[in-house]
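Entry 14: structure prediction run for Formate dehydrogenase subunit alpha. Input pasted below.
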Amino acid sequence: MIRLQVDGIPVDLPAGASLLDAVRAAGTELPTLCHDDRLRPAGSCRTCLVRADGRTVAACVTPAMPGLTVDTAGESVRNLRRDAVALIASALPPHALADSAHSELAEACRSLGIPADPQAGDPTRGRDESHPYVHLDRDLCIACGRCVRMCADVQGTFALTLTGRGADTVVAPGTGGPWAGSDCVSCGGCVDTCPTGAITQPGPGQGLTSRQAPHDRVRTTCGYCGVGCTLDVVVRENRVAAVLPARDGPVNRGHACVKGRFAYGYLSSTERLGEPLIRENGELRPASWDEAVTRIADGLRAAVLDGGPDSVAAISSARATNEENYLVQKFLRTVIGTNNVDNCSRLCHAPSAAGLTASFGRAGGTDAFDDVETADCLLVVGANPVEAHPVVGARLLQRALAGASLIVADPRAVGLARHADVHLRPRPGTNVALFHGLAHVLVDEGMTDPGFLRDRATGLDELTDLLADYSPERVAGITGVPADDIRRAARLYGCSERPAVLYGLGVTEHLHGTDGVRTLANLPILRGAVGGTGRGFGISPLRGQNNVQGASDMGALPDLLPGYGRVTDPEARARAEAVWRRPVPSVPGLRIPEMFAAAREGRLRALWIIGEDVCATDPDSRRVAEALDACPLVVVNELFLGETARHADVVLPVASWLEKEGTFVNFDRRFQRVRQAVKPPGTARSDFEVVHAVADALGADLGCPTPAAALAECGRVTPLLAGLSHERLDREGAVPWPCPEPDRPGERTLYADEFATSDGRAHLSAVPYLPPGEEPDQDYPLVLVTGRRWAHYNSGSMTRRGDNLLLDAQDRLDLHPEDAARFGVRDGTPITVESRHGQARLVARVGMELAPGQVFCAFHFPASGVNSLTSEHADTVTSCPEYKVTAVRLRPTVSDD
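Run finished. Output tokens:
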């Protein structure tokens, strides 16, 4: 520690602290117009001047030294600071310091007694209001560079620059045109850091930043992707005025993305459901809650009477809170008497849960994401976090720019791939072969950890025998990745001191997705880079939805209870039965695809779908619709009347993540609080309240009257979560599981002592490469991959009902110029995409991001019919759909006119 004095007050600071840190520790605030704690200090504005042992220095760039005497209060140094602020303010128009202005500069001028200059010049440099979320008033720009550094150093987009000379210097998009046409990804970092109000968010949130957030705010956790950003929601008259990234957010650290920061317009959409709907004479009509709940209860009774408890099923949701998922599975198991409950992780990360459990013993990533900051090699596989998980993508990019080696394995040249030391571009569906090729080099060239493999792993002999058949040359023939690139990537990973593996849906959404997870997990096991050894980050799945981890943690799965106890395990069942005071069925229930098949066959008579638009997001959507139409009772909890709701018998209006209480679990296993910021529209209720209402109508008492009580009860069911509570999360902010005791921290790093497998060892996997479910042929010569784009989220039901639609207005198909020429397709023209299962209409985007023979589209615009293209092929272990490999062909769309 460093000890020095500030205005006579002794201050102790850690090594590396600045004098600005020291001044703040002494309880004094200085103006810092060029400084943001999230950025490297610049020292250019000179508004934070102090005297240090008689020298006048800028506090933000001056290191704290032992024994230093710092003076902030002397008249001369105060006048210097005042003069520096006054000089900056003198160049601005009067409205910069108006009473209504609440910028850092305006507040500094008020505190220093600097009045607005009534003789200041009129505005001359103009405004840029082309962007829906970011407006620029050039006359308020002081060229401090904070926005430029935020865009580069935190977001990693490099979309902004300073242009002009001298007093005419002003921020501008780097592309030179209007802001809306720039590379800006709308993270809001520039808005949040601007000290003068030159860059603002239009509307009621104008002028609000995370540094100056008002008191009328609600802290919650983002309800979009699985990163788990902490957000402060500013509320005005039951309306969201702004959503601000929390500076002390444990994962986002004052950063956000376009969805979490700005995409809340759906809350006030005229399309929001505000009252229940029930089907009568083939049409949906408004109904009261009593009528709707009675209809559901009667339908469930009839289904059980006609077909038994297993004729009822429910699909829970990663968009729902942990407490809601817990209540749903408890309702199915104790009130209905069936294990027919599943959640949407079935469609994305079920192979992660299965694969990580088989390799290590638990269904989550091995390490806290914060530890990636110490990684010297990043292996990012089957993921585009720059678009799908922007806050994580930005942190990974900054780590790479700081010197960590970056290996990206992905068919597309997007996001982090553009910055990679090695970009491996395997043919879709060949992951297992690629991972074996990397492992072959590690073993062949002696880049493994013999001690770790001897003491803490099993399966090495079997894997070594298998790897003999996966030389880089053979793997190159399977994957299309050059053998030299495989060797180079393996050596970067194998020679690093602290390697990290992160992966996404490009690994899981395959016919052999679980094999992909397990063979990828082989790499950190071979390196001894897992299990708290200090030699690596381990492996972590990047979860796509806000609570896809938590939905499974809570037991919303057909074969697993809360905390991943198996329904076939008498001990796990007995623990749950002791708390619930009801028997738990011992036979695993139906998975989502099996539910649809059972409905089409007449075996499923009631299906409750919570927060999932399965007709828009599930594969082979035509067959999904057939299943819903065949089921006698379909209940849908939704925000909007989506495609699935149009097939429902009862539609219930429910609250969004900004309108209810509970918790989420993010991608690195952290429980965080979700808090209600505004009331839901009309008579909409939370899913928690809805499940209780239906249980009450059936004469059942679920207990758990509040979300807090539900989480507490869950802790009694599973020791894995026994130390968690709303009270603790309110106090500590974020707690990872496992957390078995309330007075001990959760486990950030898993397996420090032993792995959670039956023998306490990590299990290497020696499964062979097998081809994907579909292959291109003469009739369908292209391979379609589906995924996400930066401005939208899943089916787009929320992001398409706001100004994000202005940023990305239509779905499109990315293809290589060679394929465009082969099929007679031009950039920007409508095309029809046909597979063996269906067809979709998109707009062509010709570019170099994909290799010839491959095409890509997102699934954010259900009307285009993308999921009618995808097949029913699914992971052989978990039934996760093979979204990443579909054989297709193209033709120009003929106008309907």
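Notes: The mean pLDDT is 94. Will compare against the previous run tomorrow.
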